[in-house]
Design brief:
Blueprint lengths: L3 H22 L15 E6 L7 H11 L2 E6 L3 H10 L8 E6 L3 H6 L3 E2 L23 E13 H6 L8 H4 L8 E4 L5 H28 L3 E3 L2 H8 L3 H4 L7 E5 L19 E18 L5 H11 L2 H6 L1 H4 L2 E2 L8 H6 L11 H19 L2
Parallel strand pairs: 1-2, 1-3, 6-7, 6-8
Antiparallel strand pairs: 3-9, 4-9, 5-8, 5-9, 5-10
Helix pairs in contact: 7-14
Length: 363
């Protein structure tokens, strides 16, 4: 999940990563006797939303001797698809960003080498969906929910929608933009939220009503939030949609760096429209630097990285002992019991659900 603020932060981080990665790779990987040296660069393949503080990445290098190179591959859905296409000859050593909506696809394609990362004892069992085999490590969680532009609803003297049912009411016609469930993990999570709410017998009828009420569908989160949502960029977004499928933790991003800090952010969360995502990382089979990959997985689950993550990627750390920054807790929304769908149900039905959604909504 990104905002314009995050985009700038990501660019700065990418520049820092590029510099350190070039330093690490500047010399030959061959030893004097002709044998191959162990690479001191570890490559992380991820979606576009991965970022971390340069100081935190330098700490990883200081602790392990490895530098991190990040390869971003679009939205999470696109990144997972690319990892599947390149399996056996992956682009990197570790993959970050496969979530519970797409996890079975990655596991069925045998993308990962099992590894039990350090720090798992501090991760709640509910997040450890592959606990028996440790092919993936839970890194964070977040709740996909509809966000709203407070200014729009104030100016139009319109009540804010709170639930899935509200979104199909006439007063919210043409106000919502969501991501494509076939190409975007937030889009798929939103669809799964409606399935959790209305069941296999009722979700299609709901989406028929939502389509009739003018929902707009775009490819991914970046386009939906940054280009179409009116509440992004501190409430000065260039889009004309005051409702967007994003995250319960999106609002803190809109006040990051704002001084003085406002009493509330320019965006809010419709708490009755949520679905919980859990993001994982795994050691890619055939990556070539298993030692570096394992060190990176340990670091992604360390308190150092986990406590940096909330104001970098605006997600909840997987570690239960990680402290949350004040801005994150003040402006974000905690969803105690969001609707969910069991992982085995997602695995069994995801492809047919997405196919049915595409036929219903995109045609």
């Amino acid at each position: 999940m990104n905002t314009n603020l995050r985009r700038a932060a990501t660019a700065i981080t990418a520049a820092a990563l590029g510099a350190t990665a070039l330093t690490a790779c500047g010399g030959s990987d061959d030893k004097a006797d002709g044998t191959k040296a162990t690479s001191k660069t570890v490559t992380l393949v991820s979606h576009d939303s991965f970022t971390a503080s340069p100081a935190v990445l330098k700490e990883f290098t200081k602790e392990t001797g490895y530098t991190v190179k990040v390869l971003a591959g679009g939205d999470a859905g696109a990144a997972v698809n690319q990892a599947i296409l390149s399996k056996g000859h992956p682009q990197g050593d570790v993959f970050f960003g496969v979530d519970n909506t797409l996890l079975s696809r990655a596991l069925d394609n045998d993308l990962f080498t099992p590894y039990e990362a350090k720090g798992l004892d501090q991760v709640p069992a509910a997040l450890q969906l592959d606990r028996a085999k440790h092919r993936v490590t839970p890194i964070d969680s977040g709740d996909v929910c509809v966000n709203y532009d407070r200014k729009y609803f104030d100016e139009h003297k319109l009540a804010v929608p709170a639930t899935f049912d509200d979104l199909v009411k006439p007063e919210y016609k043409n106000l919502l933009v969501t991501e494509n469930a076939a190409t975007s993990s937030p889009g798929l999570a939103f669809q799964l939220g409606t399935i959790a709410k209305y069941g296999d017998a009722g979700w299609k009828e709901y989406w028929t009503k939502l389509k009739a009420n003018g929902v707009e569908v775009v490819d991914g989160w970046e386009q939906a939030y940054n280009d179409r949502f009116s509440g992004s960029a501190g409430g000065k977004g260039k889009g004309d949609k005051p409702l967007v499928v994003s995250y319960a933790s999106s609002p803190p991003a809109e006040v990051l760096g704002v001084k003085p800090q406002p009493a509330q952010g320019p965006t809010g969360v419709a708490t009755g429209t949520c679905f919980r995502q859990i993001e994982f990382a795994g050691l890619l089979k055939g990556g070539g630097n298993d030692a570096g990959g394992k060190a990176l997985l340990d670091f992604l689950l360390s308190k150092t990285f986990q406590q940096d993550m909330p104001l970098q990627m605006f997600v909840n750390p997987a570690r239960q002992d990680a402290a949350l920054p004040a801005e994150f807790t003040k402006y974000g929304v905690k969803i105690d019991t969001p609707p969910t769908v069991a992982p085995d149900e997602i695995a069994k039905n995801r492809d047919q659900w997405v196919k049915a959604w595409s036929s219903l909504v995109l045609k």
